[in-house]
TrEMBL record:
Gene3D superfamilies: Butyryl-CoA Dehydrogenase, subunit A, domain 3. GO terms for molecular function: acyl-CoA dehydrogenase activity. It comes from Sandaracinobacteroides saxicola. This is Acyl-CoA dehydrogenase/oxidase C-terminal domain-containing protein. Signal peptide: none annotated. PANTHER family: ACYL-COA DEHYDROGENASE (PTHR43884), ACYL-COA DEHYDROGENASE FADE28 (PTHR43884:SF20).
Length: 224
């Protein structure tokens, strides 16, 4: 099954707000154990993040992921949550009119949205890139750590823009943005702080491991 098919199937499943039992029945909860690729895993977790599936389904998903891969799964959840928050923000500023024109027409708003979109794209790209390295059979410790660090750092940057452009409505219980913000901040704290992941990445970059990784990349480019 390709990542695109996993994404499509997960979108349909999560749209029905499944419980943990439905997730188990679908087979998604044991994707890796059943022979799935890490690219498919990232696609699944991005959709889970977009859907704000809730802690029970989230726990069922993570239970099927080996410990060393969970940082990648969390980065993918964050990518999905940020994507959902961006979509809500785009819809809001397009509909909200101030001083005779939509907020989306304001230059400052457009710049903030562009920055937010860059964060979303970067986190998703980092997660997919790390998954591709794992699926190629190479050591992806650096790529996974870097994806997890970038994802954690993107949370406050992205949610700050989303809530600033939404105003007070973004914090209300009947509007979905706050659910994504709660999820994103929980995922950011899971498995270590940004400082912890920065220390791991820094240790890799300053050690001999960095030379090994760049040599590996150079060889890939030569044969590409």
């Amino acid at each position: 099954m390709s990542a695109a098919l996993v994404r499509e199937a997960a979108t349909r499943l999560f749209a029905r707000a499944p419980d943990a039992g439905a997730l188990e029945a679908s087979g998604f909860a044991r994707l890796l154990a059943d022979g799935g690729s890490h690219g498919e895993l990232v696609a699944l977790f991005i959709e889970a993040g977009r859907a704000a599936v809730g802690e029970a389904v989230e726990a069922a998903l993570l239970a099927g992921v080996p410990e060393h891969v969970r940082p990648l799964a969390l980065a993918a959840l964050i990518a999905g949550g940020l994507e959902a928050a961006l979509a809500l923000t785009l819809a809001h500023v397009s509909a909200r009119v101030q001083f005779g024109k939509a907020l989306a027409k304001q230059q400052a708003v457009q710049q903030a949205l562009a920055d937010f979109a860059c964060e979303v794209a970067a986190v998703a790209a980092a997660a997919h890139g790390a998954a591709a390295v794992i699926d190629s059979g190479q050591d992806a410790a650096f790529e996974v750590a870097a994806a997890r660090l970038w994802a954690g750092q993107a949370v406050p940057r992205g949610t700050a823009v989303a809530h600033q452009l939404h105003g007070a409505i973004g914090f209300t219980a009947d509007y979905p943005l706050h659910r994504h913000s709660v999820d994103l901040n929980r995922w950011r704290r899971t498995g270590g702080s940004d400082a912890d992941w920065a220390a791991r990445v820094g240790a890799m970059v300053t050690g001999d491991w960095w030379a090994d990784m760049t040599a590996r990349s150079d060889r890939s480019m030569e044969h590409g």
